[in-house]
UniProtKB/TrEMBL annotation:
Transmembrane segments: 25-44, 65-87, 107-124, 136-155, 184-205, 217-236, 242-259, 266-287, 353-380, 415-434
Native species: Devosia soli
Full protein name: O-antigen ligase-related domain-containing protein
Signal peptide: none
Keyword terms: Membrane, Transmembrane, Transmembrane helix
Subcellular location: Membrane
UniProt membrane topology term: Multi-pass membrane protein
C-alpha cells in the first residue's frame, strides 16, 4: 500500500500543474475527491490488515493539531451561529449569519486545507522507508525537469502559448502550464533544491555490479543537465523573487551538504565564490529580462507597499475573526484605491501571510504558518545533528526556505499545484527526521 501511495503522490505532483496549476475550483474539488478516496482506501486497508501506520500521527502531534485547528476554524466560519457585520470604507454595512462573509469560498478553502493535510499524511507514510522516499524524490526531480523543458518549448517553438492556447498575460516569458510566471517560478525553484539534495547520494553510492566510476560521473552530469534546464527555465520566467528565493533555498542545501565534509572550511568559501560566478554568468547569458526587471524594482516595491498597507487596513477591520477563508478577492475591492493603479485587478494579496491574516484573522492565520515552522525546525535540527546526509531532509529544508521567502511577496502557495508539491517534499523530509530519531 505504501508503494502504491508513493506512486499516487508522484502522479499528483506530475499532473496537478497541467491544468493551469490547478488554480480553479473544479480542480480543487477534483484533487480533493481523489485524495480523499485514496486516503479512505488506505486507512481502511491499514485497519483490516492490523498493520497500523508506519508513522503514527502522534509522532507529528504539534503540526497535526495546528492544521486540524485551521480546518476547524474554517468550519466555524461557515456555521450560522449568529449575526455578524462589518462596515466597509464606503460606509456600506455587510450583514451575515456566519463569521465568513463568503461561506461558499470558505467551504472551498476548507476542501483545500483538508486535502493538503491528508495528502501530507499519505506522503509521510510513503516516505517512512528511506529508499522509497529517495525514489519519489528522484521521480519528482525529473518531473520538474520535464515541466521546465516543456515550458521552454512552449516559449520558443510553440508560439509562446499555454498548452496550445493563447496567453492572456506574461507574453515573452516562460509560464509553463501555469497562468502566472511567479507561481511557475516557485515550482521550478523547489526543483533546484531537490536536484542538489540528490547529487551527494549519487556520488557517494557504492558501485553496482558492472558499473564503472565513469558511469557514476555520467549520471552526475545527467543530473547537472537537469539542474541546468530548470535554471534556464527559471531565468526565462523573469521572476525576480522566484529566482532569488530559489537560489537561497538551493544554496542553503548546498551549505548543509558541504558542512558534512571534513574540509568544509575550505569548501564553503570556494562554493560561495563559484556559485556567485556561475549565477552571474547564467543571469548575464540567459536572464537579460530578469536584469531589466531588477532595475525597475524600486517602482514596483512602492506599489507593493501600498498594496500591503491596504490589505492590512482590511485585516484590522476584523483582526480576530477575519473575513472568511477565500473571501479576500470579494472584499478587497472595497479597500482598494490610490496610489495603486486603478486599471489593475487585485484579487490576491501578493503575500500569503497577509492573505491568511485577512481571511482567518491574526490567530487563525498564524496556525498553518506555525505548523510549517515547527516542521522546519525539526527537519533542520535532524539534519545538522546527523552525520548522514538525507536527500529528503535536504530537499524539505530547501523547499520550505524557498516558499517561505517567496510567500512574503507573492501567492505561489495559494496555487494548488505548488501546495501539493510543497506538501510532498515537506512530508518526506519530516518522515526522514522521525525515522532517524527512532533509530537513535
Amino acid at each position: 500500500m505504501n508503494n502504491a501511495i508513493g506512486i499516487f503522490a508522484v502522479l499528483i505532483v506530475a499532473l496537478s500543474p497541467v491544468p493551469f496549476g490547478s488554480n480553479r475550483p473544479f480542480f480543487w474539488t477534483l484533487w480533493g475527491m481523489l485524495i480523499g478516496l485514496t486516503g479512505l482506501v488506505y486507512f481502511l486497508q491499514a485497519t483490516r490488515s492490523f498493520d497500523g501506520l508506519r508513522i503514527p500521527l502522534g509522532r507529528i502531534r504539534i503540526p497535526a493539531v495546528l492544521w486540524l485547528l485551521t480546518a476547524l476554524w474554517l468550519v466555524v466560519q461557515v456555521l450560522p451561529i449568529g449575526s455578524f457585520s462589518v462596515v466597509l470604507p464606503n460606509g456600506q454595512a455587510v450583514e451575515s449569519a456566519t463569521i465568513s462573509t463568503a461561506p461558499g469560498a470558505t467551504l472551498l478553502m476548507l476542501v483545500r486545507i483538508v486535502s493538503y493535510g491528508l495528502f501530507f499524511v499519505l506522503a509521510l507514510e510513503a516516505g517512512a522507508r528511506e529508499s522509497r522516499a529517495k525514489t519519489m524524490l528522484t521521480a519528482i526531480f525529473w518531473i520538474i525537469v520535464a515541466h521546465a523543458g516543456f515550458s521552454l518549448l512552449q516559449l520558443t517553438q510553440f508560439g509562446d502559448t499555454i498548452l496550445g492556447l493563447p496567453k492572456i498575460a506574461y507574453m515573452g516569458v516562460a509560464t509553463g502550464t501555469f497562468i502566472n510566471r511567479n507561481s511557475f517560478a516557485t515550482f521550478l525553484a523547489m526543483g533546484l533544491s531537490v536536484g542538489i539534495a540528490l547529487v551527494p547520494g549519487i556520488l557517494s553510492a557504492k558501485l553496482a555490479r558492472n558499473q564503472s566510476a565513469m558511469d557514476k560521473v555520467l549520471v552526475a552530469f545527467l543530473y547537472a543537465g537537469g539542474l541546468f534546464v530548470i535554471t534556464i527555465a527559471l531565468l526565462a520566467t523573469e521572476s525576480r523573487m522566484g529566482l532569488f528565493a530559489g537560489a537561497v533555498g538551493a544554496f542553503v542545501v548546498l551549505l548543509l551538504i558541504l558542512k558534512q565534509h571534513e574540509r568544509w572550511k575550505i569548501l564553503i568559501p570556494a562554493a560561495i565564490v563559484l556559485a556567485v560566478a556561475l549565477g552571474l554568468a547564467a543571469i548575464w547569458t540567459f536572464g537579460q529580462g530578469t536584469i531589466e526587471r531588477a532595475l525597475t524594482l524600486e517602482g514596483s516595491t512602492e506599489g507593493r507597499m501600498a498594496l500591503y498597507e491596504q490589505v492590512w487596513n482590511q485585516t484590522m477591520d476584523r483582526p480576530l475573526i477575519g473575513f472568511g477563508g477565500g473571501a479576500f478577492s470579494l472584499y478587497f475591492p472595497a479597500y482598494f484605491g490610490p496610489p495603486l493603479n486603478l486599471n489593475n485587478f487585485w484579487d490576491k494579496a501578493h503575500s500569503t501571510y497577509l492573505a491568511l491574516f485577512s481571511e482567518l484573522g491574526l490567530v487563525g492565520g498564524a496556525l498553518p504558518i506555525l505548523a510549517v515552522a515547527v516542521i522546519f525546525g525539526r527537519v533542520v535540527w535532524s539534519q545538522v545533528s546527523s552525520e548522514r546526509l538525507s536527500p529528503a531532509r535536504l530537499a524539505a529544508v530547501g523547499a520550505i526556505l524557498t516558499c517561505a521567502m517567496h510567500s512574503l511577496v507573492d501567492f505561489s502557495l495559494e496555487i494548488q499545484a505548488n501546495a501539493l508539491l510543497f506538501a510532498v517534499l515537506v512530508a518526506l523530509g519530516l518522515a526522514g527526521s522521525i525515522k532517524l530519531q527512532e533509530k537513535r
